[in-house]
Amino acid sequence: VLGDAEKRRRYDQFGPEMYAGAGARAHAANGNGGFASMDDALRTFMGAFGGMGIDSIFESFFGGGGESGGRGGGQGTSKRITIEISFIEAARGVEKEVSLSNFVNCSSCSGSGAARPDAIKRCAQCGGSGQVYQSRGFFSMSAACPTCQGAGQIISDACRICRGQGRIKEKQKIKVKIPPGVDNDTRLRMAGHGDAGDGGGPPGDLYIDIRIAPHEIFERQGDDILFELPISFVDATLGCKKEIPTLHGTYRIAIPEGTQTGKVFRIRGEGFPNVHGQGRGDLLVEIVIETPTSITEKQRALLQQFSETEEAKNFPRKKSVMDKIKSIFGEAS
Fold first, then answer.
1. Taking the alpha carbons of 43, 46, 49, 50 in that order, is the dihedral positive or negative?
2. 144-148, long-range: CB within 8 Å, 24+ apart, which pairs?
3. What gap in Å lies between CA 149 and CA 134, rounded to an integer?
């Protein structure tokens, strides 16, 4: 009815019996639960909630109100922060100190909000339940007690320190232990390091999102580390030995003669530790053969002499590709 303009107009004009059966129309005609108009129905509906707004109505229906509870001992709000660490710190683990501004239980009243224990009285309107119940027409519902705001208690003499809130704001320094092997978007949880709850309720938690700064030469692939090692075509042709960096120092790697660009050498156990304690990854060394960007006349002459001695067997990959190209063009002709 509300979604159709014509139906709503007729509802406002003739009342709810317009859409009810004969028995319901007779019931409404006798004044037993019917509404004279849509405005009357909405006023009754809103009045049943004490005149609260739409947001408050939905909170009553669905238990809204955020992560922290009311003054009846609800859990405090959880917090979330982001910590950035270096690539090496992520591999080795690190302890960081962070500063937070949290609600903590008032030490003067132990979170009760009262100046003394006998200053806390049971709410007379709701009988200590924190809820009041109302029935209006076909609505029957509960809402937070307007006298005690749902706490079920009344404080006659509030604590001077927290002014009856039961908690105060305080700056805290917390040490966060980050285990080795964490990755980007890892989220850690520290129970009980969020805001203290209202009315002496338990505190929320602290969630820490980890961000890892990129490394200058290393790239992470799961628990493995990729390292690109540029070498000259002479080193690749003749073979060589190179000192390469690792997370724990240096490692001497032997590159055999005839190594091609893109070749990957695996060094076991030199990667990241698994954050769940399931061993370590490896260090993957990828060979990149770098072509000289400029050469001297002497180098040019030597290369020309070398090219005159080249044979197809020296370049098996090149020969294979050329044979395939010839095959394709031969089929096309």
1. negative
2. 144/60, 144/70, 146/50, 147/123, 148/123
3. 16
Residues 125-140: tens digit of each pLDDT:
888 888 888 776 666 7
123-128 contacts, C-beta under 8 A, 24 or more apart: 123/147, 123/148, 123/151, 123/152, 123/153, 123/154, 124/154, 126/152, 128/152, 128/153
β-pairing, 249-255 with 283-290?
Answer: unpaired
Q: Among 63-67, 150-154, 247-251, name the most confident range.
A: 247-251
Residues in the chain: 333
160 burial level (CB within 10 Å; 0-12, 13-18, 19+): exposed
Q: How far apart are CA 220 and CA 187, in angstroms?
A: 18
71 has pLDDT over 50: no
Question: In DSSP terms, which residues pair with 264 in a beta bridge?
Answer: 286
Phi, psi of 127 (to 5 degrees): 70, 20
Dump pLDDT digits (tens) for 168-199: 999 999 999 999 999 998 999 999 999 998 87
Q: What is the mean pLDDT of residues 306-331?
A: 78
User: pLDDT above 90 covers what percent of the chain?
Assistant: 46
Angle at alpha carbon of residue 96, lines to 90 and 102, rounded to 5°: 130
Beta strand 224-232 pairing with 120-122: unpaired
Report residue 41 as tokens.
Answer: 């129905």
Whether the pTM exceeds 0.90: the reply is: no
Instruction: Identify the pLDDT of residue 18.
Output: 52
